[in-house]
Design goal:
The complex is a heterodimer of chains A (111) and B (893).
Chain A: E1 6-7, H1 13-23, E2 26-27, H2 28-38, E3 43-44, H3 47-60, E4 63-69, E5 75-81, H4 83-108
Parallel strand pairs in A: 1-3
Antiparallel strand pairs in A: 2-5, 4-5
Helix pairs in contact in A: 1-4
Chain B: H1 2-14, H2 16-41, H3 45-56, H4 59-68, H5 72-91, H6 93-122, E1 133-139, E2 145-146, H7 150-159, E3 163-172, E4 175-176, E5 185-186, E6 189-192, H8 196-200, E7 206-207, E8 222-225, H9 227-234, E9 244-247, E10 250-257, E11 272-275, E12 294-299, H10 305-317, E13 335-339, H11 340-345, H12 349-380, H13 382-390, H14 395-431, H15 446-471, H16 476-481, H17 490-525, E14 535-540, H18 550-565, E15 570-576, E16 587-592, E17 605-611, H19 615-619, E18 623-626, H20 631-634, E19 646-650, H21 651-657, E20 667-670, E21 679-685, E22 700-704, E23 715-721, H22 731-741, E24 747-752, H23 753-760, H24 762-796, H25 798-806, H26 811-840, H27 856-883, H28 886-892
Parallel strand pairs in B: 6-11, 8-10, 17-22, 19-21
Antiparallel strand pairs in B: 1-2, 1-12, 1-13, 3-6, 3-12, 4-5, 7-10, 8-11, 9-10, 14-23, 14-24, 15-23, 16-17, 16-20, 18-21, 19-22, 20-21
Helix pairs in contact in B: 1-2, 1-5, 2-3, 5-14, 6-12, 6-14, 6-15, 12-15, 12-17, 12-24, 14-15, 17-24, 17-26, 17-27, 18-22, 24-26, 24-27, 25-28, 26-27
Classes of the chains: A alpha+beta (111), B alpha+beta (893).
């Protein structure tokens, strides 16, 4: 792990969780691990924030939670994306793309 | 999704252990995985564990964050606060009891008053679209409402477009014949035009309503019964329709029965209705042209009372030939259109509003008292609260907890208050004046309870606001260091200010009570014009076929009079058609043969009394000029033209109409057909009050009983007892004497004159009793408040007092110090209160009599009382201060 680990951009944690879970159901640590890996260490998910966000998304109906036994015979809480969760993911992805494009335009501006 | 949020939250509330266990399991699993990942990277087990823990950060905080992110967290903290509050309250029973009792008093009184005013001022009347129902009245010269004539009713019925339905009605008092199971009874009833129930929007539950064809002169004799009468006298018989009922010895057929819940606000005691049966042809000299009917109407949709009033004014000013009017019923002064709700509450409204103001004052005083108590208690908890803030609670959190405490206190007070209110309401109803409308609907129902709970919540917040703001205001570190006793003066000043407010409010209430008390004193000091002590009065109704003719009636009354004269203990007895201060009104306009100046705006009418000659002696009404009636007058020798009928008038009328002349010998005329012969004034007697002691100008016209156009019925018997205390005791003997002449005539309204006089001031008395009760409670609360603040001050300044004593102050000086403080506070409160009372007394003006609202005697008396009470409240703290041993107090620090 490099020292350039930073927390996720504020406001994007939900998006990252939804995206991660769109590929397969996972437990909390798995999500954090996946985000770190795929972002190549740029983003590091804070455990507390993750758990808070997971509860929020679950209550909002975008995730379903289920206690399952893992390969190591441990019991873990697995989260999966719901149908409305998928819709929300699309929405937030589009929104994110919009914002990124806007920032890119602003940064390209020459005086 | 809201549903999920709800269910998850509820599950967390109900099974917190399970929720915590799951969260722990999740965190533990996370940690295990993180540790495993570290081991995979090559760290040793303990190193991997440590690395994982550092990575994850403070999981306790994280767990807290997860727990508090749900809505159920707020509920949990609220419940925790509640539990804590209750525990605290249990630990300090003295404080709790005093506060709860104080709040219960304030909330209970407010709730009781609210349930009394609710049916009158808040609830809609129990009719469909009740806001459309109005009462139409004629106007007297001074603008006050007057009954209408049948002629007016017919004209409006034909010409007015603003109303959907109109009905006229008058009271009727028939005698229900005795059956083998019950006595003859005089019933309260109404004679109504056929559309009466239609106008109100209520219909008989059994049988049918009146039909238009039945309401004609000489029409069929039918009645509709009330549910109460049907059950009471007819055993709730199912086949009641078509049965016949004997009223006034005539047979009536029952057409229907009104529903059980029917409330007849226009005449609450009426148990029976019959069609009015007036002559639609409006004969000039019939009763159709007397002002004795009341008119109720239902406005059309989209027509307001103001619109209707305008239309009626137009009609009034434009008479048409088809509806000729008699001179005394031109209604050109206009007609009043009053919504029914207002009309029903008209007389009682000023008293009710004053009482509402008084109870709110009492509530405010109770709140101020409890605020003071909370402030005092808050000072002792400074350390505890500082600890909470040090442990991480925000100021908002601490304030929230304190507010929950005061809310809990207020809710307990509210619960006790509701229980108290149930008791208060019963006494309220018991002492309510007859003018209080819808009395039987007054009770503590769901609406009242809901209002009480809301009030308790508001009180809780108000009472807790100042103490909680104070609690978090001060620096916490010094608070932790110092002992809780030595406090800066800030909150003491606030407590002093609150006591000043209390005293001011108490003074306003006391002034109100004092003014009303003096008003009643003055009112009862007014001479009614006759001597009420030792007078027994009762009304006899001569009904039935045998007594249907005038001469038969007169003979019956004459025999009854003789019989009563022979009862031992009776000094004098006389008859009259109208009794002063009985609530009856019978007035006639006057005409004068000789020239007199009459102001057109003046009320040119007088009350008519048809009396037997001994009336004036029995009532002890002094003669001022001329002579009284004698037996020759009674024989009616004047009515056939041989000699003019003798009339006696009151001296104020004589002075006004015949200034400087002798009224005796002048001729006047009133009542009866247009061209009848003139009557002659033979005597002038002292003025007598008819409507109330407070009434200003009431003219009286006395005629001998046998000479009037009809034999008045019912008739009042006025009996003067030999000893003034025996009046009430004579009643059974007098009744037996009358019944010895004819067993079947009901005798009603038996009362001593003293009781009647007292009853005329019923509304004022009602307001006064309530004001007195509230003022006394306020005085008690204010004195407790003063005592509390001074005790607190003494307790907090023991060191200072010790120093003073050590420097040479005697116990008397120290005590004087305390008393001076108390008097200063009271004095400021009194000054503020006087200002408040000057403003607030404007609301009482209509209830006052004989005292101005700036009455110096009242204010002086109240101020003296308050100061005296304040001094007494200071005594105990002063004595305690004087007793302090300087050696002990100085060492205690």
């Amino acid at each position: 792990m490099t020292d350039e680990n930073t927390d996720v951009i504020p406001g994007t944690l939900d998006l990252l969780i939804l995206k991660t879970l769109s590929l397969q159901p996972m437990h909390g640590f798995g999500i954090a691990r996946r985000v770190e890996d795929i972002s190549r260490g740029v983003f590091k998910v804070n455990a507390g924030s993750l758990l808070v966000a997971l509860q929020r998304l679950e209550r909002a109906g975008w995730l379903d939670a289920e206690w399952r036994t893992t390969e190591n015979s441990r019991r873990a809480k697995f989260y999966s994306l719901t149908r409305t969760g998928r819709k929300q993911l699309e929405l937030e992805t589009k929104d994110w793309a919009r914002r990124v494009a806007a920032i890119a335009r602003l940064l390209e501006e020459r005086a | 999704m809201i549903w999920r949020g709800l269910t998850r939250g509820v599950r967390a509330l109900l099974r917190p252990a399970q929720r915590d266990a799951e969260l722990d399991a999740e965190v533990r699993h996370y940690l295990e995985q993180a540790t495993a990942a570290g081991v995979k990277r090559g760290l040793s087990d303990p190193a991997a564990l440590r690395a994982a823990q550092m990575d994850m950060g403070n999981m306790t905080v994280a767990r807290e964050e997860v727990r508090s992110s749900g809505w159920e967290h707020r509920v949990e903290t609220l419940l925790a606060d509640l539990r804590y509050s209750v525990r605290l309250l249990r630990r300090e029973p003295g404080f709790t009891i005093v506060s709860v009792v104080t709040l219960a008093l304030g909330i209970g009184a407010s709730t009781a008053i609210f349930s009394a005013i609710k049916p009158v001022l808040v609830d809609a009347l129990p009719y469909p679209r009740a806001d459309r129902i109005v009462v139409v009245s004629d106007m007297q010269a001074d603008g006050s409402p007057n009954d209408v004539t049948f002629g007016t009713f017919r004209e409006l019925l034909a010409r007015a477009r603003s109303f959907e339905q109109m009905a006229a009605f008058k009271p009727w008092r028939p005698t229900l014949a005795a059956t083998d199971m019950s006595e003859p009874e005089r019933l309260e009833a109404q004679a109504v035009t056929w559309s009466y129930f239609r106008t109100l929007g209520v219909f008989p539950a059994i049988g049918r309503d009146f039909a238009e064809s039945e309401d004609v002169v000489g029409g069929p004799k039918i009645v509709i019964l009330s549910d109460g009468l049907w059950r009471r006298r007819f055993g709730a018989e199912r086949n009641i329709v078509g049965r016949s009922v004997t009223l006034n010895d005539r047979s009536f057929m029952v057409a229907g029965v009104m529903p059980q819940g029917f409330e007849n606000v226009l005449h609450p005691s009426a148990q029976l209705w019959t069609p009015l049966d007036y002559d639609a042809a409006l004969p000039r000299d019939g009763r159709e042209w007397g002002h004795h009917l009341r008119l109720v109407a239902r406005l059309r949709a989209n027509v307001s009372p103001a619109d209707a009033s305008r239309e009626l004014e137009g009609i009034a000013k434009n008479p048409v030939a088809e509806f000729a009017r008699v001179p005394w019923a031109t209604f050109q002064a206009g007609l009043l259109v009053t919504p029914l709700r207002e009309d029903v509450a008209r007389d009682i409204r000023p008293a009710l509003l004053a009482v509402i103001g008084a109870v709110l004052l009492l509530l405010a005083i109770a709140c101020v008292n409890v605020t003071n108590l909370l402030l005092a208690r808050g000072a002792h908890r400074r350390g505890e609260l500082a600890m909470r803030v040090a442990l991480g609670a925000g100021r908002g959190r601490v304030m929230r907890q304190l507010l929950v405490e005061s809310l809990t206190l207020a809710l307990f007070g509210g619960a006790a208050g509701i229980a108290l209110a149930v008791v208060f309401v019963r006494s309220l109803v018991a002492l309510s004046p007859p003018g209080l409308p819808r009395v039987h609907v007054i009770h503590v129902d769901a609406g009242v309870v809901a209002a009480a709970v809301l009030l308790a919540a508001i009180v809780g917040v108000c009472v807790g606001l100042i103490p909680s703001v104070y609690a978090v205001r001060y620096e916490l570190l010094p608070a932790l260091h110092r002992g809780s006793r030595r406090m800066a003066g800030g909150h003491q000043r606030t407590r002093g200010a609150l006591v000043v407010v209390e005293v001011a409010l108490a003074l306003v209430l006391l002034v109100g009570a004092g003014l009303l008390l003096r008003s009643l004193d003055r009112l009862f000091a007014v001479a009614p014009g006759f001597d009420p002590a030792g007078l027994l009065t009762l009304q006899v109704q001569a009904g039935g076929q045998r007594l249907s003719g005038d001469s038969a009636r007169l003979r019956f009354f004459a025999s009854a009079l003789d019989a009563v004269r022979r009862v031992p203990g009776v000094e004098r007895v006389a008859l009259t058609s109208q009794l002063p201060l009985s609530g009856d009104i019978e007035k006639y306009g006057l005409e004068y043969e000789s020239q007199v100046t009459i102001d057109p705006n003046e009320d040119n009418s007088g009350f008519r009394y048809a009396v037997t000659p001994e009336y004036f002696q029995a009532m002890r009404i002094p003669l001022r000029g001329g002579r009284l009636f004698d037996d020759a007058d009674m024989r009616g020798s004047g009515s056939d033209g041989a000699a003019p009928r003798p009339v006696i008038i009151n001296e104020a009328l004589a002075r006004r109409r015949f200034p400087g002349r002798n009224a005796v010998g002048e001729r006047i005329r009133f009542g009866g057909p247009k061209d009848r012969p003139w009557d002659v004034i033979v005597g002038v007697v002292a003025d007598v009050k008819q409507m109330s002691l407070a009434a200003a100008r009431e003219d009286a016209l006395y005629v001998p009983q046998a000479t009037w156009l009809w034999a008045d019925n019912p008739i009042w018997f006025v009996v003067r007892a030999r000893s003034s205390s025996a009046a009430a005791a004579l009643a059974p003997a007098v009744q037996r004497a009358i019944w010895s002449v004819d067993r079947n005539q009901p005798i009603v309204r038996v009362a001593t004159m003293d009781a009647l006089v007292t009853a005329t001031a019923a509304e004022r008395r009602f307001a006064m009793i309530l004001f007195q009760a509230f003022a006394l409670a306020a005085l008690a609360l204010a004195s407790v408040g003063i005592y509390g603040v001074l005790s607190g001050r003494v307790a907090e300044r023991t060191r200072e007092i010790g120093v003073r004593a050590a420097l040479g102050a005697s116990p008397r000086d120290v005590a004087g110090l305390v008393v001076r403080q108390g008097i200063t506070l009271t004095g400021i409160g009194v000054a503020a209160g006087v200002g408040g009372a000057l403003l607030a007394s404007r609301a009482l003006v209509t209830l006052l009599f004989g005292v101005g609202r700036l009455d110096v005697v009242t204010y002086a008396g109240v101020i003296a009382l308050l100061l005296a009470v304040a001094v007494v409240a200071c005594l105990l703290p002063a004595w305690r201060a004087a007793k302090l041993d300087p050696a002990m107090t100085l060492r205690a620090e």
